[in-house]
Amino acid sequence: MKTLIKNGFLIDPRNRVQARLNLLLNNGRVVAVTQDEPTADRVIDATGLVVAPGFVDIHMHEDFVGEDGRLENDDKKAIFKCMLRMGVTTALGGECGINRYDPARYLDIVDRDGAAVNVALLAGHAFIREACGHTDKYTPATAEERKAMAQLLEKELDAGCFGISYGIRYTPGIDRTELLETARVCVPRHKFIASHVRDDAAEIFAAGREFLDVARELKLPAQFSHIGSMAGFGQMEAFLSFIAEYRMNGLDVACDCYPYYAFSTAIGATTYDDGWMERYHCGYDVIEICEGKYKGQRCTKTIFEEERRDHPEHLTVCYVMQEADVDRALRDPNVMLGSDGIMNNGQGHPRAAGSFPRLFAEFVRKGKLSLYEAIQKCTAMPADRMGLPGKGSLQAGADADIVIFDPDAIADRATFSEPTLAPTGIEYVFIGGDIAMQRGEIINGRLGKAVRKL
Ligand SMILES: [Zn+2]
Description:
The chain is α/β, with parallel strands linked by helices and about 450 residues long. Helix content is about 30%, strand content about 20%. The chain folds into 2 domains: about 280 residues, TIM Barrel (Alpha-Beta Barrel), CATH 3.20.20.140; about 40 residues, no CATH class.
């Protein structure tokens, strides 16, 4: 079926285009970009709206696989559906060292059943490590385990994973040898490495160096994960200079960031190991519990200790980052948007359902970024990092993954108490030339395919 999207204002930073042009879609691709009005089976009038490449989320945490071997599909719980409602058409999961399931098999499930968005994955270091028998996160892997990890990683990369992700913070037992021996597997395959680094706040420089020196030694592209929650405690200006220095000396490093001033992690995570209050200069009350009987409540010493002991898996939100630092990060030309969306049973941080529209509501409409810059951070930058010429672009021949939104109305509505609320102002999302979402309602939640890097 041929679809014509006419009268819209096309913004495509990959191709340096900001112009009134019509798009003709057919067989899953953009087949014409023109000032004419070619005939079509379906015509979408985008008068007054922005037409942009579908958003690419470079950093998120994929849905769980149920006991029936299928992806979470509940409208209120499935994170890929949250992604779709906020204009995302391709999402990269497997971040921070974590996979929900064997990634190669996960991609096969996406191909078999379809997903709400196109799904790409990194192989998570912690997943690989556990699969190879090392379950103690505080101790280094043995030589034999490292060898097994490299072999499993090879298999996952050859099945289409985009690289390896580390959650060094969550697996502090990892040492330089383990980092090097796993990252090295990416070199001949032209993949990249991403990391939630070992530490944050005042310790961010040493933690950043540990990761980036490995990338530099192996000449691998590096993605620095969620910089806002790592250096957003007064270090941002200095840390952006630190990253820029690596870049200017030859390392291909870029960063992602989500547009919120609070982070989210499980209450049992190493983030809250002894010393965390000194690190963030705060008390227990900066933590809000997202699940269970204390949902919505701020921590006291008693709640903190009870939850950490009885429900280490419960997600929390931690209100500690500095606004000026997060804003500075998102204005930096080398920082792209990454939602870091993560959900347990429909609960968690609103970034999973609000990050992309929020960038337009809070940054573009408040004058912190231009519309063009914001779209660049949501499309061309992440697609370039992933090496996907057909995504993040509306050029003739590109995949027909498209978002159409009202720049004056696009806004997030998800909150810390209702984290899956759909945004407003997004009129259409197309995946592969078909309508996946219209005005907040999912029309077809199975259009997404596995995206493999081979
Ligand atoms: Zn992380």
